[in-house]
Structures are given as structure tokens and as C-alpha cells.
Amino acid sequence: MDHRHLGRSGFKISEITYGNWLTHGSQVEDDAAQACVRAALDAGITTFDTADVYANTAAETVLGKALEGERRESLEILTKVFGPTGPKGPNDTGLSRKHITESCEGSLRRLRTDHIDLYQAHRYDYATPLEETMQAFADLVRAGKVLYLGVSEWTADQIRAGHALAEELGVQLVSNQPQYSALWRVIEGEVVPTSRELGISQVVWSPIAQGVLTGKYVPGQQPPEGSRATDSKGGQGMIARWMSDDVLARVQDLKPVASDLGLSMAQLAVAWVLQNENVATAIIGASKPEQVADNAAAAGVRLPADAMARIDEVLGDAVVTDPARTLESSPKEREV
After folding, report:
1. Which residue ranges does the record assign to the NADP-dependent oxidoreductase domain (predicted)?
2. With b meaning 16 or more CB within 10 Å and e meaning fewer, what string describes 69-106?
3. pLDDT tens profile 191-227
């Protein structure tokens, strides 16, 4: 397993990160989740990503239990704050000092650790002054409860503003966590160039487009039973945008590309995002240990230029590139 620096910091994370969104505490049972974490460790993955909002804090609890007994210094634990948790009261969401401080304490308890390696603002909070948010994060860093700071799904302008405040406060904003795949490339136009300039890396989620890029969904056929497309707890809604026959047919046409390179479709998709030099790691999720092993094998794979060109040609106008789509991720009015 190769490791890459996160931004301009000295902090390294594994090229493949194991994430438990839509799985731990929700889609799979705890014993299966723990087996997936074990498979990740066996594959050389040292970086684990979660968030307090996943399964309303249950995902952090499952991950903390699964990692218990591992050497803490050999792990990089990433979590996030913003989304509504608990009973979803007026201060149970957002990036206020109150919510950030209390959420960090809760995450530390659930993850069974005394510090978070990378604490990320899960979305941009239009209802809280950015100065308040960054000051609260900086205080957690100075208290030793957080080592590095990141954001998720922020626009280029938002990242620039957050980075400037972090510098003023003497703390490190080193990452952005956006959705990124061969089908969803909205960060390439503005977010990536800005991040490169500022010394910020991408920690990308959904590199296989919620499973669509594995090729298991066939146009004109019902989704496989137990797949994300049949998960009414959340996965079904997220994957819906890719379930048109046109997109699915294009993905099927990628199979010869993967075959020629001796890769599975999942490995091809994960390797594709890792070709971007601004990407530090690709977050993979799994409901079965064998899925972890398959995806993790994409680490260190370098795709030749002709394969990258073939992927572009096959996917064609199914690819989403509009930078403005990032704005859709952060609610302009906070839900409570």
C-alpha cells in the first residue's frame, strides 16, 4: 500500500482509505463491518474515514470498536462534523462553536481515541460566520484533540477563505473531501487548481460512483438484490442519477479497457481517480471483505495515457463537469 502526503503537511495517509458511509451501523451488520475493517488492515490500509452523521453516530461507534486494540500511532482516523445528530435539536447541526466542540468530544468517545488525525467540516455552513468555525477548529488543534483540519464539498472560493483564516490562526487546512469519479468530475475546473495553489489535497469519495462503475448494473435489468441500488436506507437515492440505461451501457463498454489492463472494473475506477496528482486518497466502502481486497489492489496502479483516453471516449457526455454542481452540496438554509 502506497502512502501520499496530505497537502503540504508532513502527514501521510494510505492511497486507499476505508470509509463507512451507508454501511456501518446501517446497511451491514456489525460483524460484517468488523470483517471489512480487518480486510482493510490486512490490505495495508491505515486510513479510516467516518462522520458523526453516518447512521446518526452509530458508524463511528462501530469503527471505534473494530479498530480497538490496533496500534493508534499506525492509524490515521478521519471524521467529520456538520450534519444533524442526536435528537436533531437547534444546536445539533452546523459549524457553530457549540456544535463543533460538543461533536468532537462525542466523536472521540465513540472512536475510542484521544485525538482525531483529520477533522473535517462536512459541508459549508452559511448560517455560521466562517471566523467562528475556524476559531473553534483552531482551539481543538491547540488542545491536542485534533491534528489537522479539512473540509468537504466546499467550493474553490470557500476553500480559499477557509485556508486564509487557518493561516491567520496558525493551523493547517490540508484537505477537501469531494465526490470524484470518472463520471463526476466537477472539481477539476476550479477546486483542484485552487487546492494545488494552496497546498491542499483531495480525499475523494465515491470513486466507483456508488458501485455503478463496477459494471454490476446492467441496462434493462433489475439491480442485483442487496446492492446499493436496492438500499432504501439511503444508497438508493444517491445512486439514482447514474441508473439510466445510457450511462449503464457506457459503463459496460469500459469492460474491455479493464480487461486489457488486467484489472477489475472497480480497480479501474479507483485507479482512475488516483491518477490525479491532487488526489491523496480514494475512499472505498464495502459490505463484504472481498470487496475491500479488490478495491485496495488499485493502489500503486498507473494507467497508461491511451487507457485514460479510451475511458474519456467511452463515457463521453455522460460525464458531469460543471463546477457549479459543488454548490448543491451545502444547504443554504440549515435543517433542524
Report:
1. 15-314
2. eeeeeebbbbbbbbbbbeeeeeebbbbbeebbbbbbeb
3. 999 999 999 999 999 999 999 999 999 998 887 776 6
Q: Is residue 319 part of a domain?
A: yes
- Model-wide pTM > 0.85: yes
Residue 174: give its domain's CATH number. Answer: 3.20.20.100
- The residues carrying an active-site annotation are 54
Domain of residue 30 covers: 3-329
The number of domains in the chain is 1
Q: Which three cell numbers stand for residue 157?
A: 472560493
Task: Give CA–CA dist 119/288, Å, rounded.
Answer: 27
CB atoms within 10 A of CB 148: 22
**Residue 272 belongs to a domain:** yes
Q: In sequence order, what DSSP letters do the residues of 60-92 get, joined into one string?
A: HHHHHHHHTTS-GGG-EEEEEE-S--TT--TTS
Residue 225: Cβ-neighbour burial (10 angstroms; 0-12, 13-18, 19+): exposed
